[in-house]
Automatic annotation (TrEMBL), chain A:
Keywords: Cytochrome c-type biogenesis, Disulfide bond, Membrane, Redox-active center, Signal-anchor, Transmembrane, Transmembrane helix. NCBIfam families: PRK03147.1. Its main location: other. The chain crosses the membrane at residues 7-26. GO terms for biological process: cytochrome complex assembly. One of its GO terms (cellular component) is cell envelope. The keyword Transmembrane applies. This is Thiol-disulfide oxidoreductase ResA. The lineage of its organism: Bacteria, Bacillati, Bacillota, Bacilli, Bacillales.
Automatic annotation (TrEMBL), chain B:
It is found in: Membrane. This is Cytochrome c biogenesis protein ResB. It comes from Brevibacillus porteri. Its main location: membrane. It holds the Pfam family ResB. It comes from the Bacteria. The keyword RNA-binding does not apply. Residues 66-437, 455-524 form the ResB-like domain. InterPro entries: Cyt_c_bgen_Ccs1/CcsB/ResB, ResB-like_domain. It is a multi-pass membrane protein. Keywords: Cytochrome c-type biogenesis, Membrane, Transmembrane, Transmembrane helix. The chain crosses the membrane at residues 68-86, 129-151, 221-239, 474-492.
Length: 174, 544
C-alpha cells in the first residue's frame, strides 16, 4: 500500500469512528427522544370525557389550551382547581380551553369532585395512565400551556394561582 | 535520511527494530540479552512510526499508542469508581422533580462532598458527554492500536525469515552453539533436526543451511480476534439507542384487565394469574418447611392484542387477538422481536366489595346483592324490584383530609371508603350508609334496611416486563468472538526453533511468546534426538 492510499484508509477509519462518537454523544444528550419539551409539538391523543364524547387534542387547534394533569388524591391539584375554573370562565370566549386529565380514576370518584368545585371545563379520564406516560408526568399537578398551533409554550410543575395562570395565558391566546 | 540501511544492504522503514531481510538488530549493539529488541511485533515497524506531518497522521499516532490506551482505561476506571461514591440521580430514593431539588438532595444528604459531586456533574456521570467520549476514545484506540500492529505482524509472519543474522539468533533467550567436526554432514544434521521437530508437530521451512520450525502461529492472532469481539460488543450497545432497537417497559395488569403496552401497538389481557406450589409428594425428600411452601410456577394466562388504530394514543382501541397462552417465568410470550416476561405479582388484592342488603324489620330477609368493582364502580345498580343502590362518594384509599373532609391518598383501592344511598319502595324510601374499614356506618338510628358484609373479590395483579433488544444477538456474538480470541491467545503458543549451520559451527535458537518451559523441553528433545553437538545457554532462568 502506498502512502497516499494509507492516508485515505486512515481518513476512512477515523471518519467511521467519528460518526460513532457523534452518534454516542447524540444519544447520551437526547436520552428520551419522546419527551415533551417547551417548543415541541404537544403529542396528540384522544380520551373519553367525563359526561361527554371522546375528545381529541388536535381538534382544539386554533385555541389556546391549558392541559392540566391531576388526581383527586393530590392536595395542590384541589387547591388550584378554582383558579383554573376562574380563568376558564374569564377567557373561554377569547379562545381558551382548559382540559383536565384525570390520572387513572373511575368516574364515580371523579364526578363528585368535579361537582364540588363547579368545574365546567372538559375533564378527560386517562384510565390506564397512557397519556400520563406519554407526557412523562412525574409529580402532579403538571400543567402544559399549548398555543393555537399545538406547540408547548410552557410546562409548569406545581400549584398555580390565578395571577400565574393569567400571565401565562397571554402567551397562548390566539 | 529516514530509512535505515542494514549492513546486508536492505533498506528498512523507520521504526524497524530487526532488519526485514536478515533479522539483524538495527542500531542496537547486542551486549546483553536485555537490550535485544522486543519480539512482540517481530521487530517490524508499526504503521504509525512514519513521518508525523499530516493532522490525520498525528491523530492516528495518538490513538495507536498503547500508553495512551492504558491512560484512557485508567481515567475510565477512576471515573467509574468516583461515580459510585454517591447514588446517581436516577437512584435518588426520594422524588426530586426539579433540578434545584436534585442539587439540594446532594448537599443536604452528603454535605460539602455531595455539593462537589453534584457540581462536577457526577450525578449523571455514565451518560455525560465526557464519559461517553472517553468510551468512544477507548473504542477508537482499540481499533487503531490493532490495525497499527496487525498489518506489519501479518506481513512478517506470512513470510518467515530463514537464514537469520547471527546476532538475531544470539539475541534469543534460548540459544545454543557448537562446533561441527569437518567430517560431519551438515545436510544430514539439518535433516535429522527437521525430522525431530516435525515429529513434535512443527511446520518446517528449509533452505540449504538453515531450518526454521514453527507451530501455533495462529495464537498470535488471539489478541486481535478478541479486539474484534470487543468492538462488535460496543457496536451492539450503541445500536440500542437506534429507534426501535430497544424497549424495556413494565406493566401491572389486573386479572380481567386489558392494558396497553406503552410504545408498542399491543395490548395485553390478564385472563387469570396463578401461583403453583410443589406438593409434598412431589418432593424427593422431606423438607423442614415450617409451614412454608416452595413455589413451582408463577403463571399468567394472557391474551395479546394488536391495536389496529394505534395512530392516536388513548383513542378507543380496535383490538385484534394475535396470541393467547401462558406466560411463565423464563418462558416469555414472543411476538416478533417483542418478549413479555412474567416478572412480578401482587396477590390477593381487593378487587370488589360484596354486600347483601337485608330488611332489618323483616327478620333480616335478603333483598339483593351489591357488588362494587373498586376499579370501575357502577354509579347505580338495581338489586331488586324497585330497589336501587347509588354510590354517592368513593375514596379508594381513604384518609381524613386536613380540612376534616374524607379524601384519598392514592388512586389504588388499598383502603376503600364508599358512601351509598339505598333507594327502596320505588323511590319512597331512602337511606345513606358508609362502608369503611370493614364496618358499616349508618345515618339513621333505626334504619329499615341494613348491609351485611360478604367476602370481597380478591384478585391478583401480574407484573409483566416487556422487552425488545434487537442488538442482543450482536452483543452475544461479540462476546463469543471475544472469548474465542482470549482462548486462542491464552492456551496456544507461537513457538519457533531455528537451526543454522555456518563455517564449521551450528547454532540453535528458539522463541516462544509464552511457556518457555515447554519450549525448553522440546529443544532438549531436539538436541538429544538429532544428537546436536551443542550446549544450551539458558537465559530464561535469570529473568524468571
Amino acid at each position: 500500500m502506498n502512502k497516499s492510499n494509507r492516508t485515505y484508509v486512515r481518513i476512512a477509519v477515523l471518519g467511521v469512528l467519528l460518526v460513532a462518537l457523534v452518534f454516542a454523544l447524540y444519544s447520551s444528550f437526547v436520552k428520551d427522544p419522546g419527551a415533551v419539551k417547551v417548543g415541541s409539538d404537544a403529542p396528540n391523543f384522544s380520551l373519553e370525557q367525563l359526561n361527554g364524547p371522546e375528545l381529541t387534542l388536535e381538534s382544539l387547534k386554533g385555541k389556546g389550551v391549558i392541559l392540566n394533569f391531576w388526581g383527586t388524591w393530590c392536595e395542590p391539584c384541589k387547591k388550584e382547581m378554582p383558579a383554573l375554573q376562574q380563568q376558564y370562565t374569564k377567557f373561554k370566549d377569547k379562545g381558551l380551553v382548559v382540559v383536565g386529565v384525570n390520572i387513572g380514576e373511575s368516574p364515580v370518584a371523579v364526578e363528585p369532585f368535579v361537582k364540588q368545585f363547579g368545574i365546567d371545563f372538559p375533564i378527560l379520564l386517562d384510565r390506564q395512565s397512557q397519556i400520563t406516560k406519554l407526557y412523562r408526568i412525574g409529580p402532579i399537578p403538571t400543567t402544559f400551556f399549548i398555543d393555537p398551533d399545538g406547540e408547548v409554550q410552557e410546562i409548569f410543575i406545581g400549584q398555580l394561582d390565578e395571577a400565574m395562570i393569567e400571565s401565562k395565558i397571554t402567551k397562548i391566546l390566539p | 535520511m529516514d530509512q535505515r540501511k542494514c549492513e546486508c544492504g536492505h533498506t528498512n522503514p523507520v521504526g524497524t527494530l530487526l532488519c526485514e531481510s536478515c533479522g539483524k538488530p538495527l542500531n542496537v549493539e547486542i551486549h546483553e540479552q536485555t537490550s535485544f529488541p522486543d519480539m512482540r511485533y517481530e521487530g517490524m515497524a508499526r504503521r504509525s512510526q512514519t513521518n508525523k506531518t499530516k493532522v490525520i497522521d498525528r491523530i492516528w499516532n495518538f490513538f495507536s499508542s498503547v500508553k495512551i490506551a492504558i491512560g484512557i482505561i485508567i481515567v475510565i476506571l477512576v471515573a467509574s469508581a468516583v461515580g459510585t461514591i454517591f447514588p446517581q440521580q436516577m437512584y435518588i430514593p426520594v422524588p426530586v422533580p426539579t433540578e434545584a431539588d436534585v442539587a439540594r438532595f446532594y448537599t443536604e444528604t452528603y454535605g460539602t462532598l455531595g455539593t462537589i459531586f453534584y457540581g462536577l456533574g457526577f450525578h449523571n456521570m455514565y451518560s455525560s458527554w465526557w464519559f461517553v467520549t472517553l468510551l468512544v476514545m477507548l473504542g477508537t484506540s482499540l481499533v487503531i492500536c490493532s490495525l497499527d500492529r496487525v498489518v506489519p505482524l501479518y506481513k512478517a509472519l506470512k513470510k518467515p525469515r530463514l537464514n537469520q543474522h547471527k546476532s538475531f539468533l544470539k539475541g534469543q533467550k534460548l540459544f545454543a552453539e557448537g562446533e561441527l567436526a569437518p567430517e560431519d554432514n551438515q545436510e544430514a544434521i539439518l535433516d535429522a533436526s527437521a525430522l525431530a521437530l516435525k515429529e513434535k508437530g512443527y511446520r518446517i521451512f528449509r533452505t540449504e543451511r538453515a531450518i526454521m520450525a514453527e507451530k501455533g502461529r495462529f495464537s498470535r492472532w488471539g489478541p486481535y480476534i478478541n479486539h474484534i469481539g470487543l468492538i462488535l460488543f460496543l457496536v451492539g450497545t450503541l445500536m440500542r439507542s437506534l429507534p426501535g432497537f430497544y424497549l424495556d417497559e413494565y406493566v401491572w395488569v389486573r386479572e380481567g384487565q386489558t392494558m396497553a403496552i406503552p410504545n408498542t401497538p399491543y395490548y395485553i389481557k390478564n385472563e387469570n394469574y396463578t401461583t403453583e406450589y410443589w406438593s409434598e409428594e412431589e418432593m424427593p425428600e422431606q423438607l423442614e418447611l415450617k409451614g412454608g411452601a416452595i413455589v413451582k410456577s408463577y403463571k399468567t394466562e394472557a391474551i395479546l392484542y394488536e391495536n389496529k388504530s394505534a395512530d392516536v394514543p388513548g383513542k378507543k382501541p380496535d383490538l385484534v387477538e394475535v396470541q393467547k397462552g401462558p406466560i411463565v417465568v423464563n418462558h416469555p410470550m414472543e411476538q416478533d422481536s417483542l418478549y413479555i416476561y412474567q416478572s412480578g405479582v401482587q396477590e390477593m388484592q381487593l378487587g370488589a366489595l360484596n354486600f347483601t342488603v337485608v330488611d332489618l324489620k323483616n327478620n333480616k330477609k335478603e333483598i339483593g346483592l351489591i357488588k362494587i368493582d373498586l376499579y370501575n364502580p357502577q354509579p347505580e345498580q338495581t338489586i331488586a324490584d324497585g330497589f336501587t343502590v347509588r354510590i354517592l362518594d368513593y375514596f379508594p384509599d381513604f384518609i381524613m383530609g386536613k380540612d376534616g373532609k374524607p379524601a384519598t391518598k392514592t388512586n389504588l383501592p388499598k383502603n376503600p371508603m364508599v358512601a351509598l344511598e339505598l333507594i327502596g319502595e320505588n323511590g319512597n324510601y331512602n337511606e345513606k350508609l358508609v362502608y369503611l374499614e370493614g364496618t358499616i356506618l349508618t345515618q339513621k338510628n333505626d334504619p329499615r334496611y341494613g348491609l351485611e358484609i360478604k367476602m370481597p373479590d380478591l384478585i391478583d395483579i401480574a407484573g409483566l416486563n416487556v422487552r425488545v433488544d434487537k442488538a442482543l444477538p450482536l452483543i452475544y456474538f461479540g462476546s463469543f468472538i471475544f472469548l474465542a480470541g482470549v482462548a486462542i491467545g491464552m492456551f496456544w503458543q507461537h513457538r519457533r526453533v531455528w537451526v543454522q549451520t555456518q563455517e564449521g559451527s551450528i547454532m540453535v535458537a528458539a522463541h516462544t511468546n509464552k511457556n518457555w518451559f515447554g519450549l525448553r523441553r522440546e529443544v532438549d528433545g531436539l538436541v538429544k534426538q538429532a544428537e546436536l553437538p551443542v550446549t544450551i545457554e539458558d537465559k530464561t532462568k535469570a529473568k524468571a
